[in-house]
UniProtKB/TrEMBL annotation, chain A:
The keyword Transit peptide does not apply. This is ATP synthase gamma chain. The gene is atpG. F-type ATPases have 2 components, CF(1) - the catalytic core - and CF(0) - the membrane proton channel. CF(1) has five subunits: alpha(3), beta(3), gamma(1), delta(1), epsilon(1). CF(0) has three main subunits: a, b and c. It comes from Peribacillus butanolivorans. PROSITE patterns: ATPASE_GAMMA. Belongs to the ATPase gamma chain family.
Length: 286, 133
């Protein structure tokens, strides 16, 4: 049995750990709230741009654009959104496991795909497996603005336009609720299915013409998709971290409880033993 | 006078939302003025000012490209970034301008020059609009 002092020092160190995890939990909770608000602020933009893109793409005009046409796939792009730091529970591992599995299933050699990594954890994961990371962004702030990601989004879209990859998938954790995040796979390029069920299709006058508008609109749309996924991923990251830290705090509490019990038992045993010794000693003197 | 609803929306959230009499802006194909009852239109915008006129009062919004969508009852401007004249940080815009100018002088590689040129345009646009308020 551990000595009283050992138990005592374990209790104090566990207490300190739990204070830290508790603080981290609260920090993540407030970051999560802001990230959720950011994701909400973004919704009107996404809705609008989706509406316009689908009404133009589905419109009567026979306008076409490379980003709307699928071509034979020689190289696939995978955009993977992870966090920069750990201590976020299964946030990174679940997404990386999913991507890794998908890549192994779909491709035989490393030349058939390129990786675009957002976040240090994902970058390191692919680099250590000798997979080609074409583009990377590290150190995205907790509350990213569009400017933080625009250059990556632009270069990603350019990869597709310059035919360095022929389709683009995006992987991120979709924020469902503070305790649930789902690994999500979306096909970004080529822009395939727009929900045609949208009843408010308007026929537009194009100034100067539909081609030139698609030229501006589609890259902007694809970039917005990436930004939207990043916001969603950030909200998930903070909530995953919050949950992980909450679990850590709870576990620490449990551990402290069981250690205190152990400590008290050991203390009692020590006292009992001392009394027995004194009584025994006194009895021997009589 | 009849008014029309105008939304300026960016990925970072809505920037402007009000009823105005006339929207005038610079599209890629030239100046564009829109009043209530305009035919549905889509047009890409250049880096420039959007003037929103309501009575004697005119608001200015700096937009960085993007495009304009007109519907019978609402005008939507979707841009990757946009700022109202009141919220433009003049000092920052001037710093960005100086930075871009310096980069233009030092560099002749095509890609960087292009980017610096664009950021110079954006900075000049913001400064001009900030001075109009």
């Amino acid at each position: 049995m551990a000595s009283l002092r050992d138990i005592k020092s374990r209790i104090t160190s566990t207490k300190k750990t739990s204070q830290i995890t508790k603080a981290m939990q609260m920090v993540s909770a407030s970051k999560m709230n802001r990230a959720e608000a950011n994701a909400k602020a973004y919704v009107p933009y996404m809705d609008k741009i989706q509406e316009v893109v689908s009404s133009i793409a589905n419109g009567s005009t026979d306008a076409s654009h490379p980003m709307l046409v699928s071509r034979p796939v020689k190289k696939t792009g995978y955009l993977v959104i992870t966090s920069d730091r750990g201590l976020a529970g299964a946030y990174n591992s679940s997404i990386l496991r999913h991507v890794h599995k998908t890549i192994l299933e779909r491709h035989k050699s490393n030349d058939e795909f390129v990786i675009i990594a957002i976040g240090r954890v994902g970058r390191d994961f692919f680099v250590s497996r000798n997979m080609h990371v074409e583009l990377e962004v590290i150190g995205v702030p907790d509350q990213p603005s569009f400017a933080d990601i625009s250059s990556l989004a632009k270069s990603t879209v350019n990869l597709y336009l310059n035919e360095l990859c022929d389709e683009l998938y995006m992987y991120y954790n979709h924020y469902v609720s503070p305790i649930q995040q789902d690994v999500t796979e979306t096909q970004v390029l080529p822009l395939a299915d727009f929900n045609t069920s949208n009843a408010t299709l308007t026929s537009y006058e194009f100034e100067p013409n539909a081609e030139e508008i698609l030229e501006v609109l589609l890259p902007q749309y694809a970039e917005s998709l990436i930004y939207g996924a990043l916001l969603d991923g950030k909200a998930s990251e903070h909530s995953a971290r919050m949950t992980a830290m909450k679990n850590a705090t709870d576990n620490a509490k449990e551990l402290i409880d069981s250690l205190s019990l152990q400590y008290n038992r050991a203390r009692q045993a020590a006292i009992t033993q001392e009394i027995t010794e004194i009584v025994g000693g006194a009895a021997a003197l009589e | 006078m009849k008014t029309i609803k105008v939304n300026v929306v960016t990925p970072d959230g809505p920037v402007y939302d009000a009823e105005v009499e006339m929207v005038s802006t610079k599209a890629k194909s030239g100046e564009l003025g829109i009043m209530a009852g305009h035919v549905p239109t889509v047009a890409p915008l250049t880096i420039g000012a959007v003037r929103l006129k309501n009575g004697s009062n005119t608001d200015y919004v700096a937009v960085n490209g993007g495009f304009l969508e007109v519907r019978p009852d609402v005008v939507t401007i979707l841009a990757q970034s946009a700022e109202r004249a009141e919220t433009i940080d003049l000092a920052r815009a001037q710093a960005a301008k100086a930075r871009a100018e310096q980069r233009l002088q030092n560099n002749d590689g095509s890609n960087d020059t292009k980017r610096a040129d664009l950021s110079l345009k954006r900075a000049i646009n913001r400064i001009q609009i900030a001075e109009m308020r």
